Amino acid sequence: QQIPKLILNFINSKQKQIHVAYAILLNNHGEIYSAIQQLKQQPYMFLFLRNISRLTFLTDPTDIISVARDVSHGLKKVYINKNIDSQWIIKRFDLDIPDDILEKLAEDTKAPDKLRFIKTKVEMFFATKYKDADGIEKLREQDSILFSYLPTKISEYKFPVLINANFLTNVNREQIHTDSIWNQWLFAKIADQMFQWIKELVKDNKFRFQAYRLIPWKLNLIDNLLSKRFNDSFAVAIKQCNFILNRKNQLLKVS
């Protein structure tokens, strides 16, 4: 379809060359403006995307949301118009998938092909907010949503950190399949890996006891298999992981 002259004039008027993948005609200006304002209130939604680090909204005035990695401190900083909006510590885990999970996943007709024929490893990410003055900050309940690289609308699972994994959700990303063996396995790994990360942060002189702010609560959802898998794993991890630091800098288990 031919690109309207208005769009061509806009592209040609820019000093820097613009590469256009899609041009979409939007009629409801008020709705689009509202969506951009909402995006500015939650700019961290792009934390887990690998190939997008900057969004520019050529509105009046122009708004720029960007994510930059501070290599010296291991932080990701989210900016709005060059002002820091938030800072995040990101942790990546490579998880070995058990053979029995791979077999059941291959038979799961609900799962997309990219999951059904996944190889032996999968990645999971945690992100915790960090402030220079206060250190590690536990996530507010209203900000606790699951990510599947982009944010979902799944907010009933209250974790102290943002969690990003290849969750199996419905098409509009509003619900997670609780009967999925894959999701159940991922939820069990969340508890285990969370205590491992706390243990790692406790040993870092920059964070130390701030890490204990990330100790999760058990999930209180009734008749929910994901909640049950997490809680079962939580009960084991909190006893088996030596994440308690004593005065001699020794890591101990909960007695």
Automatic annotation (TrEMBL):
InterPro entries: Auxin_embryo_med
Superkingdom of source: Eukaryota
The name this protein goes by in its record: Uncharacterized protein
Species the sequence originates in: Adineta steineri
